[in-house]
Amino acid sequence: MSSLSLAVRDCSTMLRRNLLHARRYPSLTLNLLLTPVMLLLLFVYIFGDVMSAGMGGGGADRSEYIAYVVPGILLMTIGSTVIGAAVSVATDMSEGIVARFRTMAIHRGSVLVGHVVGSVLQSVASVVLVGAVAVAIGFRSKDATALEWLAAFGLLALFALALTWIAVGMGMASPNAEAASNSAMPLILLPLISSAFTPIDAMPGWFQPIAQYQPFTPAIETLRGLLLGTGIGNNGWIAVAWCLGLAVLGYRWSASKFGQDPK
Questions:
Q1: N or C: more exposed end of the chain, with fewer CB within 10 A?
Q2: Closest to 40 (Cα-Cα) out of 78, 80, 72
Q3: What is the CA radius of gyration of the chain?
Q4: Tens digits of per-residue pLDDT, 29-39?
Q5: What pLDDT, in 10s, does the model give residues 185-204?
């Protein structure tokens, strides 16, 4: 077999290993998935009428706020799901299985690739489930074209890839699973201080730069424009730039930590 075939085989084996772990221990994924679902229901059914009235000048109904909040919830779902990757990597590191993999005749990058691809697949599945809940409570995307739907799916997958690499780096740098979970919490907190739940113009002036200059806001605005068939301005290329930058940073960080000798 060629070196490429061996690398693909090893990556497939590691991917299967991580998917089997996720299937045998679904509680972590379900717990992480519960956060965005509960926030979606909370903001729609508790705050939806008030927020819609405020955004629509006093005459809007809850459906307008559902359309506004769902894109942010979908990206928050990705941030929540990839925490599982950080925990899984930290567990492998602390239990010594990664040290064992280093001594085996396998492609070195397959260990990381298995975690990353497995996490991206779980993120996509989680987004589909949360999207189904959103549709069930009234979200509709009437004005989006097939091309915009395809672009939205591509953005979600790219965003999941970028955050997964960051989460893998966090897991490799953490001494245990608990520390990895704590270090990855900003992936859930950042959407809360973005444009996910309220327009940036409605925030205090001193707080607007914090919400504007972070990776979630341009991604949310791009996804919102694609799903609702509205303009995205320059948010599209800013979101892609954030994704590529985070993916490269996370990859280099993870590869560097993986290449270090265990202490």
A1: C
A2: 72
A3: 19
A4: 777 778 889 98
A5: 888 889 989 988 888 888 88
